[in-house]
Design a protein that fits this description.
- By secondary structure, the protein is α/β, with parallel strands linked by helices.
- It has a single domain, classed as 3-Layer(aba) Sandwich (Rossmann fold).
- It has an eight-stranded mixed β-sheet, sandwiched between helices. A two-stranded antiparallel sheet has the order 5-6.
- The longest helix is centred in the N-terminal third of the chain and has 14 residues.
- The mean pLDDT is about 95.
- Bound molecules: thiamine diphosphate, iron/sulfur cluster (SF4) and magnesium ion.
- Magnesium ion (MG) binds next to helix 3 and strand 5.
């Protein structure tokens, strides 16, 4: 923040675009938490990039005063990585749905996790494809009945937290859109974390899969004595099926992708690359 920059409040980040989400959609809670965190950290809109995929959740960049990239389905992570390595000074936040992130975009998660770029990835997990009217998604429970699974979902849901832990992500947390205070704290920590920070948010779709009654009894606060540096203990929480753990599961410090990349660039610039005619001479 320069001395000329005005103090920002959560209101400052609102755009003229009004969210067209259904009244009661969990994504409102995620958006409110984002406004709060951005104001807490006084992140200037000119230094902020929100990257999204396609889905109801994918509309988020339109509602936050910042640079925004409403990309294509499943491609939040490569776009966010490209933005971050082009200008590592920017605060980059990727947002998308469970379908966007874990189905069509699922192949990008292991590579983002192991590369550890310094950005945040928030999945608004409603266990359905909201935008396309409620088909089953990779996090829908077995037996889930919808237009695309009229006789019940025959698949088992994947477990996002366990997935990210096994891929080696350096920050893994889970929040609930109905608990915006806690969610604000988690996203705040995620932005401050140096490296790839994954926040899964249980964010009900009131229209196509209304879980507002069934989710709250299953929520379980991660106890304060949980050692967030212990990956094995984090797996115990991540593999819970009856309960939904809320809070910070795991955090570790690892070199970031940008740090490695700038080292490679430094080495490449210092080396004298072979001339083209020398390379051709090898094959003649
Ligand atoms: C390549 C491609 N395939 C399929 C679609 C259709 N489509 C749009 S959004 C979506 C799923 C949205 O579900 P999710 O990512 O969970 O987001 P939500 O709407 O629930 O927030 C699908 C299949 C698309 N836009 N592009
Ligand atoms: S369809 Fe579902 S996810 Fe989409 S805006 Fe409505 S409640 Fe939210
Ligand atoms: Mg969804």
């Amino acid at each position: 923040m320069s001395t000329a920059d005005p103090e920002l409040t959560p209101q400052s980040y609102k755009t003229d675009e009004h969210p067209i989400w259904c009244p009661g959609c969990g994504d409102f809670g995620v958006l409110a938490s984002l406004y709060n965190v951005l104001a807490e950290l006084q992140i200037q809109p000119r230094n902020l990039v929100i990257v999204s995929g396609i889905g109801c959740s994918g509309r988020t960049p339109g509602f936050i005063k910042s640079y925004g990239f409403h990309s294509i389905h499943g491609r939040v992570l490569p776009v966010a990585l490209g933005v971050k390595i082009t200008n590592p000074e920017l605060c980059v936040i990727g947002v998308g749905g469970d379908g966007d992130g874990f189905a069509i975009g699922g192949g990008h998660i292991p590579h983002a996790a192991r590369r550890n770029p310094d950005f945040v990835y928030i999945v608004m997990d409603n266990s359905t494809y909201g935008l396309t009217k409620g088909q089953y998604s990779p996090t829908s429970p077995s037996g889930f009945q919808a237009g695309s699974t009229p006789y019940g979902n025959i698949e088992r849901p994947l477990q996002p937290l366990a997935l990210l832990l096994s891929y080696g992500a350096s920050f893994i947390a889970q929040g609930y859109s109905g608990k915006p205070k806690q969610l604000t704290e988690l996203i705040h920590k995620a932005i401050e974390h140096r490296g790839f920070a994954f926040v899964n948010v249980i964010s009900p779709c009131i229209t196509f899969y209304n879980t507002y009654k069934v989710i709250p009894p299953r929520l379980m606060e991660i106890p304060p004595e949980h050692d967030t540096s212990n990956r094995v203990k984090a797996f115990d929480l991540a593999l819970q099926t009856d309960h939904i753990p809320l809070g910070l599961l795991y955090q570790t410090s690892l070199p970031t992708f940008e740090e490695g990349l700038s080292e490679v660039i430094r080495k490449a610039q210092a080396a004298s690359p072979p001339r083209l005619d020398e390379i051709f001479a090898e094959f003649s």
